[in-house]
Amino acid sequence: MLWLIGGTQESAVLARDLVAQGIDCVVTVTTAGARRLYPDTECCRVWVGKLTPEAVSEFLQTYSVRAILDASHPFAAAVSELAIATAVELHLPYLRFERSPVEGVAPGEWVFPSVEALLATDLLINERVLLTIGYRYLPLFQPWQDRAILFARILPSHEALGGAIAAGFTPDRLIALRPPIAAPLEKALWQQWQISLVVAKASGSPGGEDIKRQVAADLGIKLVTLARPALAYPQVTSDRAIALDFCRRALAQ
After folding, report:
1. Phi and psi at residue 199, to the nearest 5°
2. Burial of 161 (C-beta count, 10 Å sphere; 0-12/13-18/19+)
3. CA-CA distance, 1 to 250, in Å (whole number)?
4. Residues spanned by the domain of 17
5. What is the pLDDT of residue 207?
6. pLDDT, mean of residues 20-34
7. Into which EC class is this enzyme placed (predicted)?
């Protein structure tokens, strides 16, 4: 069976491709809400949870995993690192399916390698900041609650909401929406909160990176982008046909 690391729009498309070709797969996602993205069939099973190095061996045995297709989010570095290490240790074929980046840097856009690098500057001081980088990064901004007016957009889940509130965000400065978000809604939200600076991830078009660039330019709002983690993937493609061919060949061995 193929292990498809999911949780993204492109992984859902790949899962449907695999089902159409009769390729058995188990998809891993971290939230129950993500389950609905995938086909409900015998040859496509969905495992919900967070795999750890201690649990991955049992997972591989339970589902008789013979190859790995990693279509996780570009910023889900931990699961990719776990999958790569597992593939190397057990000699399993591994392919990273990477969503295409949005090329170049927009005029007036700042790019930082990490949240820590951004917070080492004074760029956010006295700004009305919208954070669109996920709830896991929000605790890093807790010391900044008195230095800037911080808002956050998070996924609509109990875990995300609890994490944001624990990081010092009040309900009136939070909005829970699942991407993709159309440009008119993005623009209306920024205007409603009188945002002056947006912090986003370099997560490609599926994550709305191109739309954020467009809206920032239209409204004259500063845009800060966090670069993707630099991982040494053994094999990478953004081509669905290549990914499907990899799956067929790997499982035929």
Report:
1. -110, 125
2. middle
3. 10
4. 2-100+230-252
5. 86
6. 92
7. oxidoreductase
Whether the Cβ atoms of residue 186 and residue 212 lie closer than 8 Å to each other: yes
CATH at residue 148? 3.40.50.1380
Contact 218, 192 (CB under 8 A): no
Task: Scan for tokens 């991830």, then name that residue.
Answer: 201
Residue 76 has pLDDT above 90, yes or no: yes
In the three-class reduction of DSSP (H, G, I as helix; E, B as strand; rest coil), residue 218 is classed as helix
Q: What is the pTM of this model?
A: 0.89
The answer to whether 130 and 190 have CB atoms below 8 angstroms apart is: yes
Enter the tokens of residue 74. Answer: 């570009």
Based on the domain organization, do 114 and 213 belong to the same domain? Answer: yes
**In a shared domain, residues 43 and 136:** no
- Tell me, yes or no, whether 84 and 134 share the same domain: no
Q: Does 218 lie in the same domain as 120?
A: yes
Could you tell me if 142 and 159 lie in one domain?
yes
Amino acid at 206: P
Is the CB of residue 97 less than 8 Å from the CB of residue 237?
Answer: yes
Strands (E), 135-192: 149-154, 174-176
